[in-house]
Amino acid sequence: TFAPGTDAGKTFTVIFAFIGIAYFGMVAGLVGTQVVHAIQFIAKCCCHRKQKNYKLNGKKTLYWTILILCVYIFIIGIGCYGIGWGMGDGMYFSLITFTTIGLGDYAPEFDSTRGAMFKFFGYFGFGLGCMVGLSLLTTVLAGVQEALEDYHEKMVAKMKAESGDTSVDEPKKRKPKGILGVLGGGAINMN
């Protein structure tokens, strides 16, 4: 295993984990933003080529991101045939990995008879694939969160109007909250 054996090693690991988690959150947010820009570009090229200055916003971006996430997980499921897993096992593994649950019941194993370069690129590709998948997942979850908040605000306004309440609340500018705000909250603009 990779667990530290000394108290100093454990202390270093805890400190490194705090720094690493913050850095990973920043990088995942940046990757998520770039993934959403790529999805918006692809959607524009596929569906809105003739419209000048078209920008995909809000719920449509969320729908495209959900579609791309599902396709991404499906492709990983197909790719897992190469390591002897079934498609369902590969899709299960990818979703468990992207949600950072990581139960450990499945793990990629790169053939030990292969060279060091093969292993390096295998693990590098696996890490990159996980980063993109995690960024897609957090972007989708942050978009769903924003859509639910929009729905909630509209329902509150509707209930106030029906009850005869004429007080006007100033619209609050939302800030990304929680883990989704750090990882992918700013990627999909619901306006």
Any overview of this molecule?
The protein has 191 residues and is an all-alpha fold. Helix content is 68%, strand content 0%. It has five helices and no strands. α1 crosses α2, α1 crosses α4 and α3 packs across α4. It is extended. 21% of the residues are buried.
- Any idea what the radius of gyration is? 21 Å
The helicity comes to: 55-70%
Give the total of beta strands: 0
Largest sheet: none
SSE run: HHHHH
Oligomer: single chain
Average predicted confidence as pLDDT: 76
Strand content: under 5%
Any key phrases for this structure?
extended, 191 residues, mainly alpha
Summarize the structure.
With 191 residues, the protein is mainly alpha-helical. The protein has 5 helices and no strands.
Layout of helices and strands:
Blueprint: H1 7-47, H2 58-79, H3 87-98, H4 116-163, H5 178-183
